[in-house]
């Protein structure tokens, strides 16, 4: 697992700060089974590791990292087929992702961390917490239940992946704009056009051959509902009120022994981008209270 790393400086900015705080950044790439997984570490202190959702990238967490990197070591990861990571053209599995996370974090010098995961990132984080409990000091899931999508939704995603791979860039972008709209609270793209454009640019920038591979992953999740009582670390379960799967929130909190629920009213599936200030406040409060 060779790690290829570089360094630069991030300026962490907080509302009301008179002078921004520079924090160190290390960019890395860890090769797992021949595939480079890209990651970035910002700041120093207890580790907080961030995992994005399908079609996303490390950029999902830019706002949160800017808020936290003056007092935590924030590690953001690009899943295979996303961002700056490579991918196996034969595909990969949920098990590959669960197995890869501890290997990458060991390479990044992380031996215990709070995991923060959106959608797929939360689903994988739950499974890592079950398989490697000593690695996960705390858990924040966002728009992530213990199971996968309904079979018809998973099948639709797989079909979408094939369409995206076969489309020219303008058609691919138009299809992804429809997907993006389903991720957010009503009217978000109209209210936040710059953020919407940044996110759509990330979604549209993936290698065409990766789309049919990464869209197969949601259909692979078996439920871990009955195993949730085995995750004993502190947990924050976050859902956007407009997320159609938000019904999982109360049930997850019932099953996770040390969890609390936060529902963000004006947010959909992508709560960190729909309501960044509220999400960052919730995350910061949880971390400061449960500092590993």
Radius of gyration: 18 Å
Distance between the termini: 27 Å
Binned, the helix content reads: 25-40%
Overall structural domain count: 1
- Please, how many helices? 11
Spatial shape: globular
**Sheet/helix structural class:** alpha/beta
Number of strands: 9
Overall pLDDT score: 93
CATH architecture: 3-Layer(aba) Sandwich
Strand content: 15-25%
- In quaternary terms, these chains amount to single chain
Give the SSE string. EEEEHEHEHEHHHHHEHEHH
CATH superfamily: Alpha/Beta hydrolase fold, catalytic domain
Which ranges are low-confidence, i.e. pLDDT below 50, for 5 or more consecutive residues? none
Could you tell me the CATH topology label: Rossmann fold
Name the CATH class: Alpha Beta
Descriptive notes:
The structure is a single chain. With 292 residues, the protein is of the alpha/beta class. It has a single domain (3-289), classed as Rossmann fold. Helices cover 38% and strands 22% of the residues. The protein has eleven helices and nine strands. The chain has helices at 62-68, 94-107, 120-131, 151-166, 169-183, 188-191, 193-204, 211-214, 248-255, 271-274, 276-289, and strands spanning 3-12, 21-32, 35-42, 47-51, 73-77, 113-118, 136-142, 235-240, 259-264. Strands 1-2-3-5-4-6-7-8-9 form a nine-stranded mixed β-sheet, with helices on both faces. Helix 2 (94-107) crosses helix 3 (120-131), helix 4 packs antiparallel against helix 5 (169-183) and helix 5 crosses helix 7. The longest helix is centred in the middle third of the chain and has 16 residues, at 151-166. It starts with a strand and ends with a helix.
């Amino acid at each position: 697992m060779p790690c290829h790393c570089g360094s630069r400086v991030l300026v962490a900015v907080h509302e009301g700060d008179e002078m921004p705080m520079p924090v160190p950044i290390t960019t890395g790439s860890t090769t797992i089974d021949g595939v480079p997984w890209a990651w970035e570490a910002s700041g120093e202190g207890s580790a907080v590791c961030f995992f994005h959702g399908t079609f996303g990238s490390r950029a999902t967490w830019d706002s949160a990292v800017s808020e936290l990197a003056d007092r935590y070591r924030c590690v953001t990861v690009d899943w295979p087929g996303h961002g700056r990571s490579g991918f196996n053209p034969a595909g990969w599995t949920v098990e590959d992702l669960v197995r890869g996370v501890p290997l990458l974090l060991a390479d990044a010098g992380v031996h215990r961390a709070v995991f923060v995961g959106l959608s797929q990132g939360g689903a994988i984080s739950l499974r890592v917490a079950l398989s490697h409990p000593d690695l996960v000091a705390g858990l924040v899931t966002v728009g992530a239940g213990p199971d996968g999508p309904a079979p018809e939704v998973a099948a639709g995603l797989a079909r979408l992946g094939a369409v995206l791979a076969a489309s020219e860039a303008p058609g691919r972008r138009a299809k992804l704009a429809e997907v993006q709209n389903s991720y957010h609270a009503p009217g978000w793209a109209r209210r936040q056009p710059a953020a919407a454009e940044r996110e759509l640019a990330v979604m549209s920038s993936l290698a065409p051959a990766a789309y049919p591979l990464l869209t197969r992953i949601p259909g692979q999740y078996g439920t871990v509902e009955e195993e949730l009582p085995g995750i004993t670390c502190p947990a924050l379960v976050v859902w956007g009120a407009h997320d159609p799967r938000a019904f999982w929130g109360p049930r997850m909190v019932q099953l996770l022994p040390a969890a609390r629920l936060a529902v963000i009213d004006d947010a959909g599936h992508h709560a960190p981008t729909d309501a960044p200030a509220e999400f960052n406040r919730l995350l910061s409060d949880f971390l400061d209270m449960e500092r590993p």
